[in-house]
Each structure stands twice: as structure tokens, then as C-alpha cells.
Amino acid sequence: MTFRTVAAGGGVAALCLSLLTGAPALASDSSSAPMTAPITVATFNASLNRSREGELLEHLANGDNVQAQNAAETIQRINADIILINEFDYDTEHKAADLFRKNYLEVGHNGAQPITYPYMWTGPVNTGVPSGFDLDNDGQIKPGNDAWGFGMFPGQYGFVVYSKYPIKAEQVRTFQNFLWKDMPGAALPVNADGSSWYSVEELAKFPLSSKTHADIPVDVNGTIVHVLAAHPTPPAFDGPEMRNQKRNHDEIRMWADYISGAGTYLYDDKGGTGTLAQDANFVILGDYNADPSDGNSYQHAIMQLLGNPRVLDTLPTSEGGPQEQALQGEANATHKGDPKYDTADFSDGRTGNLRVDYVLPNRGVFVEEARVFWPTREDELFRLTGLDKNPQTGERQPFPTSDHRAVWVRMRFPASADQTVPPTTSPTPPTPPAPTTPPAPPVAPGQPTPPVQPTPPATVVPPKADDAASSKTKTPSAPQGKTADAPSKKTSEKLAATGASGLTWVLLGGGVLVLVGVLLVFLKRRGQ
Questions:
Q1: Bridge-based pairing state of the strands 407-412 and 39-48
Q2: Tens of pLDDT along 135-151?
Q3: Other CB atoms closer than 10 Å to residue 493's CB: what's the count?
Q4: Angle at alpha carbon of residue 63, lines to 60 and 65, rounded to 5°
Q5: What predicted TM-score, i.e. pTM, was given to this entire model?
């Protein structure tokens, strides 16, 4: 395996300098700072959504659904320690998430080893929830476009997080009910005459998140990593007002503000306010429906994250992406972005393949490998990704798994206890900061208001009964096959101090030997 260092800082330079000068490398350098054991974190839009409520439960009940088998095998091949699965229909009893875990992930497929996730999180989403308004202004109120997030039933296109490490259930924060109008300088859509696309009554209830935004703290052997999960709406299927493009932009901006400290205006579904601590570990996961170079995103929306000083772009690659760009042609031939970074196989004639799925950790991590699961057509595993049209006849056919590709990064996080400041509870959000994007024309009252009917917070699904005994007695060590934890900061400092004192004793001893030698020569000559 070829390791690729993407960590920021001058640790390597410091190490080289120490070798040249004979000075020990300091424990505070990034090369010697305490780090977690390497963990693999992944995101995968697995297209485990169905056309009617309850249909996914039926398909997962017996373990014989081919598409679900392919999705499970893909995850097993990656062997992620933490994974977000987008487009996984939500049900209030979390039955689908548990069935997929039990009947598919914990069963080997085509030689891939079963994978066990004792912990998972899933929660309610805005997709398919009726708004009661004509949000697309076509004169009708109907499912789909007029739901708070596009969907035909509540819970469609939800998501689930699986983890080998404990999830801090009591610290999970969700932002399902944060109102779009309460974001300072929100890119709210307007008509051609400059009037608001949405009425004041609609904006008084309109959530920014098309699904939900969730901050899910995971305890990686004592180091907290905040999994920031979301799935912004596609920047398409709208008109000149660009209502979906602008919503996608601001959904991405929510996380940019949350990690940078500019999101003091945010309130979560429990009424808490506050952003992520500046020294907290995090990883942003999900299908963000935004490519940095191509596609229809509004004002290069994803650059709010890729260009954020707190974010490390791990740049996962594949061999399959460039091959498909060359073979599929059409819209792909006009793209500016490098196809080795593509993560989705979209319509060749209209959109082309794009990079829309991301694993973005905080700066300071050490990246060992970053990949997109997109095999070439010659690879045996290409059967898991496949094509949406027959290469011989050109006839359309469903993808064997999904039109998205799984993305995974193997990395080490700075090892430390959680430094996150607990959110405060306030009846109203604080005074908004200066906008981070050019403000749109005012269309709603400027004073933020809490959500009218907050949804009860989602809960972490506990381990199964046969896992309960072990999970109660101790925090699990690194998953099977992983290396042991990095030494603690105190141990590293002790090792560095030992190295320094050792070098000192070597130099002193050498000096004494030289003095003894000179003295012996002097006495010998005097005696002659």
C-alpha cells in the first residue's frame, strides 16, 4: 500500500532538520504529536431508497435483495470503521437500519468478510414531510416538490451512520428545524421582479436542511471525532429563481459556518446554540450534490468547505473515473475537473460524471490513503458499480448498486479529549454575525425565531442483545486488523526528553574519553 501524507504543518521539515543537526525532534511537532490509531471513514450514497413507504423494510427482511447485497459487499470491501449511508429510507422504529445491519452487513458476500457495527445513528428528515404550501408555485399542493424536502413520503432519502466505535448519544445535535430565513445573508430565491419566491408565511416554517444536518460525536478510544452528516438538495429541478441551487448553497454553508465559528446564529432541535470548538476533531461526510468545477451548483457552493481553512481536502481518487470519462464522452468531454476525483456516474447527455461525495476531516489529520471505490471495467469488482446502459445496445438499465461511488479515507486524528463547549439553551438565537455571503434582498422579518414545532431528537440505536455485555464493560479497542493507539502526549514528551538526555550523556562521555586520551599521550612523552 502506498501511503500519501496530506497532513498540514512542518513536521517532516522539522524531522529532517533534527537529523542534520543532531537535535531531537520535538514532541509538539506534527510528526511526533500523539495521534489515534488509523481509522477508515467512508460515505456512500447507496440508493437504498424506495418509491413507497415501507417498501425498503420488505426488501431488507430476508437478505435476498440483490441491490442491498451489492451495497453491503461494497461496504465490506472498504471495511470502514465509520460510514454514512445516504438515501436510506428512515422509519421511526429504525427497523430498516437494523435489518440492513443484521441481514446484509453481518453476512459475507462473494468472499467479502462480514462486518459488524455495534453502534448506529439515524434520525427524522424533512424529505417527504408535507408543507401545506405550494412551494414550487405551480398552482397545486402535492407530494414531492411541495414537501419541505423533495420526497413522496416522510423519511424517504434519509440517512444512517454505522460505527465500530461508541456514539455519544447524549451529545448528538441535529438542525432539522433551523429556519432558512434565520441564516444571515441567506441566498433566498427571488422572482424576476425582485420579489420573494416564497411568501412570508412559507418562510416562517421553511427549514434550511432538506433532510437534516447532524453532528454525531464518536468516541475513538478516548478521542472524540464529530461526524458532520448531511445530504443537501440537488441544485437542479428548478427555474430562473434557482430555489434548489440556492438552498444547496446554504445547506453547505451551514457546515462551513458551524466549523469556522461564524455560525453563532444557529440553533439546534433542542434549542441549544453554539458552534463546534476550534480545536475539535471532525469529518464532514455525505453526498453534497456539488462539484468544485462542473455541474450546476450556485457560486461554486462546495468551495465553502474545500476552501475553508479548517478543512483538509483529502482528494480521493480512482482508476475507474478517468476510464468512464473517456468511454462515456458527451457531457464528460466538456468538464474542467479531473475525472480521477469523480464520485458519481450521472447522465452523459446532460450532466456527466461529477465529484459530489466527500470525506473532509479537519486539518492536522495524517492521511494514509484516500480512494473512490470505482473499479475499471477490467476489474472483477466492476460488477458492483456497473453501467446504467448496455454498452452493446445502448438500452437503459439500472445500476447494480447506485449511481454514486463509495468514498473512503484512512487517517489518524490528533489524539485528545473532546474540547467541545456544550451548547447553551436560549429562547432566541443570538444577534447574527456579519454575513459570509452577499446578502439576498430582504424578504422576511430579520429577527430569528426558533422553530415552531421542533422534532424530537433522534436516538442512537443501542447494540444488539448479544453485544450488550461487552459494550457495557469497556470501550472497544481499535477494530480488528487495526494498529494499536499512538502513545499519549505525556509518553511522547517523556520519549523526547529521554532522547535529549541520552544525546547529552553521549556527548559528555565522548568528551571525557578525548581528555583521557590527550592526558595519556602527554604522560607518555614526558616519561621518554
A1: antiparallel
A2: 999 999 999 999 999 99
A3: 16
A4: 70
A5: 0.77
